[in-house]
Amino acid sequence: MMSAINIYLCTLFFKSKSSMIKITLPDNSVREFESGITGYDIAESISSRLAKEVLSISVDGAVWDLSRPIHKDTSIKLFQWDDREGKETFWHSSAHLTAEAIEFFYPGTKFGIGPTVDNGFYYDIDLPEGQQLVEKDLEKIEKKIIELAREKHDIVRKEISKKDALAMFSAKGDNLKVELISELEDGTITVYNQGNFTDLCRGPHLPNTGFIKAVKLTSIAGAYWRGNEKNKMLTRVYGITFPKQKMLEEYLILLEEAKKRDHRKIGKEMELFTFSQNVGQGLPMWLPKGAMLREQLEIFLKRVQKKFGYEQVITPHIGDVNLYKTSGHFQKYGADSFQTIKTPAEGEEYMLKPMNCPHHCELYKFKPHSYKDLPVRFAEFGTVYRYEQSGELHGLTRVRGFTQDDAHLFCRPDQIKDEFKKVIDIIFIIFKALNFENYSAQISLRDPNKPEKYIGSKENWDKAEQAIIEASAEKGLKTVTVLGEAAFYGPKLDFMVKDALGRSWQLGTIQVDYNLPERFELEYIGADDKRHRPVMIHRAPFGSMERFVAVLIEHTVGKFPLWLTPDQVVVLPISEKFNEYAKSVSEFLNNSDIRTIIDDRNEKIGRKIRDNELKRIPYLLIVGEQEAESQCVSVRKQGEGDKGSMGHQAFVDFIKAEVKEQLSSLYN
Ligand SMILES: [Zn+2]
Ligand SMILES: [Zn+2]
After folding, report:
1. 407 C-alpha vs ligand 2 centroid, how far in Å?
2. Based on the domain organization, do 311 and 328 belong to the same domain?
3. Of 33, 265, 364, 452, which is most buried by a Cβ count within 10 Å?
4. H, E, C per residue of 394-411
5. CATH code: domain of residue 70
C-alpha cells in the first residue's frame, strides 16, 4: 500500500516539476506542454478543425507520426494535405494499406519497398510462385483497401532490435525485407503495424487507416528488385489515395486530360521527335518538324540574349578527363555515368561532356580580363550526356543526351544583383512569348546552422544571397525562400511554372558559383591593379531543349504560338485544278518567311480542313476558282473559323503583325 502511494507521489512530483516542455510553433510562438505530448494533441490544443486535418508533424526538422510522444523542447510544424510532407505521410501509409490488402488475397507475398512518388505511391511485391497480378485484379484490391480503411485500424509504431526484426520477417519468409534489415544498424529499426499487417518502416504514418477515403490503383509494371537488372523482376503496383472521394474524381479527370496531352503521344502525331532502339535508349532524335521547332526556339533565345550582351560560343562534346577532375564533375559523374573514352595510341582519356561549365571556364582564360570587361557572358546550346538508369527514362523529360540553353556569366561580386535582374528579365520574356502565365520562384539559401558545408567566404555569401533576394523583389517575382537548399558552391533561384492542367514543372535556374572560379583559378585585374576572382553565374532559362519542349507540348496540347509552330500555314486547293495556284501562293508565303505547306491530296475539302486542324496548323488557306481569279486566299484560323478573304501581301502583313504581337516582349 505504502509503495503504491510512493509511486503516485513520485509521478506527481515528476509531472509537476520537470515534465513540462517548450514547443516552438512556426510563427515562433512558444507553448508549454507536458512531456509526452503528441503532435495530434498539439493540433487539438490549437483547434479541433486542425486536429481533423493534420497528417504528420515535423519535430526539429524530422517528420514524425502524430501519435509519437515528444519529450524535449523542440520546434514543430504540423502538416496537412496541402503540404508535401502531409501528402507523403498519407500516401506512404496508403502503400502499407495496399500491401495489407494484397496480402489478404495473396498470402505469402513478399514485400520490397513502398515509397511515395510525385502522384501517389507504389509497392514492389513478389507474388507467391505461379501467381500474377493483372489489371482486373486491382478493383478487388481497391475495395479491400477501402474496407480496411473504414475499419479505422490504428497504425502503431514500434522500435525493435535488429535480431527481432530479422526473426520476425524470416518467420514470415519475406527474404526481401530480411535483406533490407540486414543492411540496417541495430537500434534504428522500427516496424509499423495496422490490423493484420506489420511492415518494416522508418515512418512516419497516419494515426489510423480511417483517413484514407478514396483509392485508385493506377497501374502495374515490372521492376527489378532494387533497380538492378541482375535481381529478380518484381511486380510494381502504383496507386493514389485521397482524403475525399471528390478529390479522386477530380484527379481522374485530370489524368484523362494529361493522357491527351502526353508529349510522347503528341510528339509522334506531330512528327516532332522519335527514339530508336538501334541508336540507343534515352537518346531523342528530332524529326524535321521538331528540328524546326527547336531552331525557332534557338533563334528566339539567341536574339533575346544578344539584346542582353551575351556572346555565343561553341565547344566540343567531349573533354579531357582531367578537365573534369579540375572542375570536380568527375567525382560526381565519373563512376556513376558514361565511362571514359580512350585514344588508341596516346592513352588519352576523355569524358562525354556532362556539363558545359568547364569548357566555358577555359574559354574565359583565353585572355586576361580587366574589371572593365566584366561581365563576360558566354552562351551555348551545349549538348551534354548523363547516364540515367533505363527504368528512369521517360520521353523527353528524362533522357541520356540533352541540349542545355546554357550560359555562364563571369562577373564582379558587385554585379551579381544586376546580372540576376537581367536573367529574370530574359525569363519573363520567354514566359510571355510562350504564354506561361502562372509561375513562381524559389530562392535557395544556406543552412545557417551548417556554415562548414559551404565553399566561399561568409561575406561573399551574404552579398550574393542579399543580391538574389533584392533582385527578385525589385522584379516583382513571387518567391518562396528555403534555407539549406543552396548548393555547396552558391545560392540559387529556380523557376516553377504551372501548366494548363495546374501541374508544376521546374524550368529555369540561375545559380551563383564560387567554386569553379576557384578551381579554375579564374581572374580579373581590378581597379586596384590587383588580381581578383570573378563570380560565375550558371543559368539556363529553358533548362534543356528536350524538357522544355515536353512541357510546352503538354501545356499547349501541341498548339504552339504562331511564331514558334513548325508549319504556320497550309494551303488547301479545293480540287486538283487549283494545285498550281496553291503552289504559287505557298511559294509567295515561303519567300516572305512564312512557313507554309500544301495539302494537294485528292480529298474533299472538308476532309482536308479536318485533317489539317488535327495537325494543329494555325492557318488554313482555302483556294478555288474565285480565289485564283481574284488572286486572293480564303483564310481559316484554327479554333476561330473563317476570317474572310485576303490578298497575298495582305495575308503576309496580317500574319507578321500577329507574330510581332506575340513577341512584343522581345521588341519592347
Ligand atoms: Zn511505412
Ligand atoms: Zn554551368
Report:
1. 7
2. no
3. 364
4. ECCCECCEEEEEEEEEEE
5. 3.10.20.30
